[in-house]
Amino acid sequence: DNIPSLVGSEMCIRDRFRLVLDQIGAVPEGTLFVDDTPEYLVNARAAGLATHRFEGIAGLRAELRRRELI
After folding, report:
1. What is the tens place of the pLDDT at every residue in 11-22?
2. Mean pLDDT of the region 40-44
């Protein structure tokens, strides 16, 4: 199971998210994806992940508190 070689193939980004989640035994509904790139966030949402657009540590901290992760 080699994630880098599989992720580098020509699969769509949404499927890449699902592949990695499968490999680590996680489910989209229980995963928060944090990034500052709108395209990645759109694709993560399409794969069923919760998302947060990173615009600074204060906003991320507030999001993690809102989700009761810290």
Report:
1. 688 888 889 999
2. 90
Whether the CA torsion 7, 64, 49, 1 is positive or negative: it is positive
Question: If residue 53 lies in a helix (H) or strand (E), which one and from where to where?
Answer: strand 50-53
Q: What is the pLDDT of residue 15?
A: 86
* First-to-last C-alpha distance (Å) of the chain: 32
Query: Taking residues 33-46, what's their average pLDDT?
Result: 92
What are all long-range contacts of 54-62, with beta carbons under 8 Å and residues at least 24 apart?
Answer: 60/34
Cα–Cα distance, 23 to 1 (Å, whole number) = 8
Which phi and psi angles does 32 have, rounded to 5°? -105, 120
For residue 8, the model assigns a pLDDT of 53
Beta strands in the chain (DSSP E): 32-35, 50-53
